[in-house]
Structure prediction request, 225 residues.
Amino acid sequence: MNTISEDEATATDEQVIRFLRNHPGFFQEHPHLLSELNLPHESGSAISLVERQVAILRERNMTMRRRMNELMQTAKDNDALFQKTRALTLELLHVSGWHELNEVIATFVLTDFHADFVCCHLEKTQVSLDHLTGGTGTLPSEQHLHGNYPICTALRAADLSALFPGDQPEGDGSAVLAPLDLKDQAGCLAIGSRDSKMFTPDMDSLFVTYIAEVLSRVVQRLESL
Prediction:
């Protein structure tokens, strides 16, 4: 066991530093001294070195736990969204007509995805239903879409009314617009909300992209009947 000489008892700061460097296990042999060491605190008071270390470790632990909870919640949300997307996909595969497609879009999107409005626009197909419309030429989504990728954006009342003619929305809101991949015409699936912050540009559009792809295949099939 290390001992302190009489000279070291009145050591200078340099000597103390040199001693501790030469005896790295000193505090392991004298753990009770840790509780007697004080570090300056921001408030002007003093806390022991051990308390400070424990506080730092506790803060790090809380941060890691919070991040873990966030990851778990995100995983749960994605799993729930996957199950809803799966159910919608299975229903779309059994659609045999435009009226049935209109009902499936309304039932699953409005209910399971907590949307206020939904409408599928088709450039040339002659159909006019509550949530499925076509044959009107230029799509109301063209001024918002740039490319073949979905977008999430805030919209003014006039834009919402053009995208969801069967619902007559009042006031501003937001929407996700997903272009359809069709051979002979343009198409778009629009899902909207009265909340302008419901669909924001930073949202992940993976699931709505998948839904749009499946919907495109269904539209192609119905047009060939």
Q: What stands out?
A: Residues 28-93 form one domain. The beta strands are 38-40, 46-48, 117-122, 132-134, 151-155, 173-179, 187-193. The chain has seven helices and seven strands.
